[in-house]
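#struct-queue
[09:14] JT: dropping the first one here, sequence first, then the structure tokens:
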Amino acid sequence: MSVIDVHAHVFPRISESESRILTGADGPWLRVHRDGTGMMMSGTQEYRPVTGPLWDPQQRLAAMDTLGVDVQAVSSAPLMFGYDADPARAAEWCELVNDRILDYCSPAPHRLLPLCQVPLQDLQRACETVSKAAAAGHRGVHIGNHVGDRSLADADIIAFLTHCADEGMPVLVHPWDMPGGERTRPHMLQWLVGMPAETQLTILGMALAGAFERLPESLKLCFCHGGGSFAFLLGRADNAWHHRDIVRADSPKPPSAYVRRFYVDSAVFDPRALRLLVEVMGPDRVMLGTDFPFPLGEQQPGSAIRDCASLSDADRALLLGANAAEFFSITEESAHV
């Protein structure tokens, strides 16, 4: 069985001048240094130091070989979403990014699965972008977990997700734009606390708003970073649904009734946490995700899965690749071409 990583990022080579498509100034772009390192840029501001696999597919493929990963679904860095831009500019920006991601994956199309991004702030343009990307060869869609104050339970975003289901495009949801403030500024607390909280907020918000009741069951939806805090606080949410009418006002079922409607990745970095995640979600709803090639990702892909003593060999095979093969409609033959 192939090892398939569903959560791996790419930042294709986009110049500072090209980044101005998005807002006219201060867009995201990639600065590559002579020593082979790089810097993700937001206008003139340095955002994050990065390494070659983020923009060089040959370096990525070599790293995948070393790490024992057969296939990666590659998605843009969330810095590139552009949800606060003018919709027309954002649509043009997404077209550029999506074309570059296709080019990035072209040397090994059976090992590198391109996921498109969309101007999620505009329903019509987002749907048009997905349809065009699907026709061009993208294998799924990568979106953020909110657009400003609009959650994924927003009526337009529900309509967009329904369109993805109709197009047969799986959707990967990534937390982003986490709450700031002085308390989260030190020690990367925005990422360590804010990201899990954002994802829990999204899943629980969808469940309690009745979003899963309005979405087609054919939609393939996956939440990154192990679904955040959702699995670990699900009992609290169910308890509230049973005892407070204000909690259950818009949902006919408790949150736990919807765990079969989505997947999560395995990026929890601890076999004990993974055991609970699998117990809550089921072994057929968790897929390997590493956050490659960022330093907060799982450095040895699948190590938590392999070290989780409560998993059977059959369960491990599901998490390491079989679930993702079903999610992205990958055949065993194509994964090894």
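[09:21] JT: and here's the second one, same format:
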Amino acid sequence: MADTATNQSKSTTAGTDSAKGGSAVALTDASRTDASKSVAPAGERGKTSIADQVVAKIAGIATREINGVYDVGGATERMVGKVREVIPGTGTSTTQGINVEVGERQAAVDVSIVADYGVAIHQLAAAIRRNVITSIEQMTGLEVTEVNVTVHDIHFGDDDDDSSDTPRVQ
């Protein structure tokens, strides 16, 4: 019994071994409940950094998943995207038309799109917001503070017809 009382009053060490470059935290039984708040749980021992590019890719893919989004990006971004498609070994950028700001716990997203004609733009924007927020929060654990949607243009179905190949008058 005397050994038990002596062991409880002695300090114990928790944390990493100081010989490995980590720091050790000394705890006593009396201070164990207060000090345990400062000791990181096993899942929080280290820092996870998520690059802006990763969040932008997630947002770009989530935006393209929504029906009614014809393309992502403004006129200049779409033109650069068309040039990239022609160059061998490159493809469409998943981050085209997406701008993000990523902090330690939060992210803000700006999305630029071209909508299909006939789609209710306010409902399209709401669907994009929901999908982007859900995707980013589930995949990264970041809280999405805002998703701003800018509609740069509307695509008509007959815009795809290449009228330069077909003469106007026959």
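[09:30] RK: nice, looked through the second one.
[09:31] RK: The CA atoms of residues 52 and 102 lie 6 Å apart.
[09:31] JT: good to know. Strands lie at 12-15, 24-27, 69-72, 98-102, 106-116, 143-155.
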